[in-house]
Amino acid sequence: MALEFRAPWSRSLKTASRIAVLILLGTAAAGILLMPARMPLLRVLLAGLPAGVLVTALLFMVSGYTLTATALEVRRPLWTTTFALSDLISVAGDAEALQGSLRLFGNGGLFSFSGIFWNRRLGLFHAYGTDPGRAVVLKFRKRTIVITPDDTQRFIVRVRTHLASVATQ
Q1: pLDDT tens readout for residues 64-97
Q2: Which of 22, 49, 119, 159 has fewest C-beta within 10 Å?
Q3: Which residues contact 89 (CB under 8 A, 6 or more apart)?
Q4: Domains in the chain: boundaries
Q5: What global pTM score does this model have?
Q6: What is the pLDDT of residues 3-50, one digit of tens each?
C-alpha cells in the first residue's frame, strides 16, 4: 500500500521562484531584443542560457513523495528517485534542518530546494524539498536526505512504524 505526500511550496520558495523567473525571462528578452544583430553568438547565449536554467530547474523540481512498504520515492516531473527503506536508520522532523546550510551543488530556490548541501548539524546531505519549515531528516546507512512532505507527522509515524516492524523481524 503506497502513501502519497504532496510537496507544498513555502512562501519564500514562491517569492524566490517568481523573482528568478522574471529575471531570467527579462535577460532572455533583452538578449533577443536589445543585442545587435552583428553579435549573434551573444544574442543566442543571452536568450538560451536563461531558458536552459528554467527548463533544468523545472525538470528537477520536487512534485511529491510516495512511501511504499519498501521504499521512499521522490517524484519529479519526468522521473522518480528511489531510496530503499531497508537502509534507513532514523527519521525525525526538523524545521531548522536547512537553516545555515551551504549549497554545494544544486538548486537553492528556483522551484525547489534540491541538491547537495552541508551544515554543521547534519554534515553532507541531499535535499529534495519545497518548504524548509516542513523538513524531515532521514538518515540512511550511507547518506542523509531531507524532504518536506505536506503532513510531516503522518509521514514520520508511517516511517517509524516501518522501522519498528523491521526491527522485530
Answers
A1: 999 998 999 999 999 999 999 999 999 999 999 9
A2: 22
A3: 139, 140, 141
A4: 1-169
A5: 0.90
A6: 999 999 999 999 999 999 999 999 888 888 888 888 888 888 888 899
